[in-house]
Amino acid sequence: MKVKTLTVGMVGSGGDGVVASGDMVLGAVAQEGLYALSLKSFGPQIRGGESSVRVRIATTPVENTGSGLDYLIVLNWRDYHRFKGELNVAPGGVIICEADPKVAIEPVPDKLRAGAVVPIEIQKLAEQVGAKRAKNVLTLGIFSGLAKLSKERFLKSIAKRFAKKGEEIIEMNRKAFLAGYETAESIRKAEWPELDYTPTTPKMLVDGNYAMAAAAIAAGVDVFAGYPITPSTEVMQWLTEHLPKVGGRVIQAEDEIAAMGVVCGASFAGAKAMTTTSGPGLSLKTELIGMASIAELPCVIIDVQRGGPSTGIPTKGEQSDLNAAIYSAHGDAPRPVISPYNVTSAIESVFTAFELAETYQTPVIILSDGFIGQGKQVCDLPDLSDKKRYPISYRRVPTDEELKQGYVRFKLTESGISPMSTVGMEGGNYLASGITHDEVGKPNSDAGVHHVMNRKRIEKLQPIRKRSDLVLTFGDADAKEAVLTWGYSTGAVREAVDKLRGEGKKLKLIVPILLAPMPTEALAKALAGVERLAVVELNYQGQMHRYLRTELDLPKKVFPINRSGGAVWQPDEVVVRLKETMYA
Amino acid sequence: MTEIKFDKKAYQSELKPIWCPGCGDFGVLNAIYQALAAVQIPPHKLAFLSGIGCSSRIPGYTTAYGFNSVHGRSLPMATGVKVAKPEITVLAAGGDGDGFSIGGGHVGHVVRRNIDITYVVMDNHIYGLTKGQASPTTQPGTKSVTTPYGISERPVNPLLHVLAFGAGFVAMGGTHDLKQLASLIEAGIRHKGFAFIDVFSPCVTYGREEDMAKELRSRARSLDEAGHDRHNKLEAYRIAELYGKEFWTGIVYEEEPRETQTELLERLSKTAQAAGAYPRDEVFKRNFLVA
Q1: How far is A374 from chain B (nearest CA, A)?
Q2: Best mutation target, A31, A154, A241, A254, to test chain B (most B CBs within 10 A)
Q3: Residue A510 has pLDDT above 80, yes or no
Q4: Which of B65, B98, B265 would best serve as a mutation to test chain A binding (most A beta carbons within 10 A)?
Q5: CA within 20 to 30 Å of A584's CA: A86, A352, A572, B187, which one?
């Protein structure tokens, strides 16, 4: 059966190389000019535990990893059971599994027997071609043969993957792949899914965390400081290698607080500064984020959200840091919060964050999550010459005239934005502080001054609300029913909305990228005429739903659709939930 | 002789200190003015960062680019400034609570970085701003508002602490001798790498009688006069061990200057650039396009 998109899932133990297999699929389809998105999942073990990967491939940009799998590859069923909640099979899906019961450990689960179960003696076949250690690559051969993906591209992808290991290893994997591919040709059935596409220009293949690190480089980051924390660490790791190449600096700090301190110090000195963290780290950084607000320091904090509270589920994503991102820190210390929904928008969000931080002299939080960060995407190269989408922004520094006349760091201006000198500027010396200060920077405990300075810092952020470009809408403009979602859930929800529209329903999807300050005008406009609204998000309390209620008049009928994270929303799941609620 | 362009006054801001009359911190401030004038750093090439506490108000009393940040974080902040602008002279200061209690986790790591920052701890063995609670350097037996029956913890030994992490410059001074103190701070600023100066700066309001300047003057013993070899690390440990028992002042330890963190980062960056520098806007094409 010819399809325009298909999803493959693989599961195995550490050492089976399933994650590497997923990468090789991505590498192969990127060469073909296809789009793809992958999601890997691990057990809690540091090394050698079970792992799974799912890859969705399509002829158009992929924004979610799909619902049920079209192909499931299982080397042993014990590992599968650990992930079964994440690896359900679509109707008509094909299950390729080990036929040797000793290797498979357990029988095929009853639930899956209804599908096309294709037992193959994978281990024996691998041994026959002298590739016992390349069972995963053999299954890749089976998959690419069945899905009708290019053999040559896979072989190139494999050669690249094992380039460092030498010719012998490459040859072994080649043999394994070809053995699988030939097997596929002998068993293929017409009703099984095969991808219908024409090769085009190669695409970019990038991890979400790497993409955000690279975006920071492109947006001009000078100093990065961080502390290792799952699932964000790859941002720092990638920057340690690449930022020095463009003249920037990375400090791996002694703790989360120190990382934020280094960022604040660097920003004060005049650098574009950024840090990355996840929930627990965001909690720790909070006091200094508040200081960055009062001292008016431009800086960017990326929170790669994971399951919370506390340690939660470090290896899996969730959308439960919304409250913390918007409200944390004592006192009146609002700051812009933006949330991308896939790798492409994550790249844009880093530019937007630096733009807002530098323009408004404020900390800015980007809410990414473990699914975006740990996922790999095959997508188009960003066209960085498009300065509207990828702006390079700088803070307003004092003019020579302002420096000569007696510099006033926190001058009350109409916009609330004051000139910010950078350390080393003659005549620009001032005292920065977390203590309430007057326009000059002098500590002051007068209630009136305190109020005026709070007003300055809070009102200067209000124009950001008008960024209607940071609220996306899809679907039927005049629909009476709408779904609002944010972050990584967008991909799945968008597909769910498309499915329902395909069933003849009139429906609109609203996705705010800018979460704070709330873009009330654009949201009110998007909600005009909407009578029933569903709010879909991945946290238990429905944090977005509650947040919307604080600043916006919502339609009379609102259906919060929320559950804890750890597993992503799947499009079909969203369809079911919408039918049970908004359409009930 | 270098031309004297900046006298003490050039570093003095218009702000009036909030300290109690007679506070040791006045002396430290004065010694800092003197040291800066001796080194002739243009005020705009100077960054001065602190945390919270009576003593942490000090950057505001200078004409440097000052930052009175949050409790315990002067050293990460100072690191950020130095990393961003290695050409700037960076000072950090605060009290013993700021440095060795709430900010204690940072001290060792800044030492390990050997980043070129001069860190002056105004050590008065008490929390003054919050009115007299025990601090990490409060000595055994001391009664304070939070230790009405005496203190239950042993005090921190700041000198041993920084030596253990490998500090390249460690000095002990006091406000009883401002001339010596100014020379210690000057030496710290001139030292290439991290410099730590613990200054006994008595709290006239909440401190112990025996810690007041007059008492200190009689107890103080000069390391220089005793012929201490500042390059001998074992001797430095021996002197450091006496902290809280005997009052030795001077440079406890100074090692030959070695590469600082910002120099190292510069060198590594040059190596990385030689191996593969690229324009920032090619970052995606270079690293992620699948050929």
Answers
A1: 16
A2: A254
A3: yes
A4: B65
A5: A86
Compare CB distances from B290 to A205, A225, A347 and report the shortest one's residue.
Answer: A205
Q: Would you call the peptide bond into A309 cis, given omega within 30 degrees of 0 as the criterion?
A: yes
Contacts of B26 (CB under 8 A, 6+ apart): B17, B19, B175
pLDDT at A226: 98
| Reported ipTM | 0.98
Share of chain A above pLDDT 70, in %: 99
Residues of A in contact with B85 (CB under 8 A): 269-271, 422-424
Distance of CA B291 to the CA centre of its chain: 53
Residues 6+ apart with CB under 8 A from A195: A2, A3, A4, A5, A6, A34, A57, A59, A147, A148, A149
Residue B256 has phi, psi (to 5 degrees) of -60, 140
Taking CA–CA distances from B58, the nearest residue in chain A reads: A431
Burial class of residue A422 (count of CB atoms within 10 Å of its CB; 0-12, 13-18, 19+): middle
**Residues of chain B contacting residue A347, judged by C-beta atoms under 8 Å apart:** 284
Burial of A446 (0-12, 13-18, 19+ CB in 10 A): exposed
The span from the CA of A530 to the CA of A510, in Å, is 11
The shortest CB-CB distance from A262 to any of B45, B76, B272 is to B76
Consecutive H or E run containing A155: helix A151-161
Query: Among B54, B85, B119, which would you mutate to test the A interface (most chain A Cβ atoms within 10 Å of its Cβ)?
Result: B85
Whether the pLDDT of residue A125 is over 60: the answer is yes
pTM, to two decimals: 0.95
Terminus-to-terminus CA distance in chain B, angstroms? 63
**Confidence class for position B2, pLDDT limits 50, 70, 90:** low
Q: Which residue(s) pair with A368 in the sheet? A: A304
Q: Is the peptide bond before A517 cis (omega within 30 degrees of 0)?
A: yes
Q: Which residues of B touch A385 (CB under 8 A)?
A: 281
CA dihedral A291, A293, A298, A302 (to 10 degrees): 80
From the CB of residue B209, how many other CB atoms can be counted at a distance below 10 Å? 8
Closest approach of B52 to chain A, Cα-based (Å) = 9
Q: Which tens digit of pLDDT belongs to each residue from B184-222?
A: 999 999 999 999 999 999 999 999 888 888 888 999 999
B173: pLDDT strictly greater than 70? yes
Is B280 close to A273, i.e. CB distance below 8 A? Answer: no
Q: Cα distance from A243 to chain B (closest Cα, Å)?
A: 8
**pLDDT > 70 in chain B, percent:** 99
Distance between CA atoms of residues A303 and A301, nearest Å: 6
3 state DSSP class of A561: strand
What pLDDT score was predicted for residue A87? 87
Largest CA distance in chain B: 77
Binary contact (A261, B79; C-beta < 8 A): yes
With CB atoms and an 8 Å threshold, state whether B69 touches A433.
yes
Q: Are strands B65-68 and B89-95 parallel, antiparallel or unpaired?
A: unpaired
Tokens of residue A502, six digits: 């395909």
By DSSP bridging, strand A376-379 and strand A431-433 are unpaired
Q: From CA B85, how far away is CA B79, in angstroms rounded? A: 10
Residue at token pair 């103190």: B181
Which residues share a beta bridge with B198? Answer: B121, B172
Give A584: exposed, middle or buried? Use CB within 10 Å, 0-12, 13-18, 19+: exposed
Q: Two tokens at A169?
A: 């290893």
Q: Evaluate whether A335 touches A367 at the Cβ level (below 8 Å).
A: no
DSSP class of A110:
G
- In this prediction, residues A468-487 reach a mean pLDDT of 97
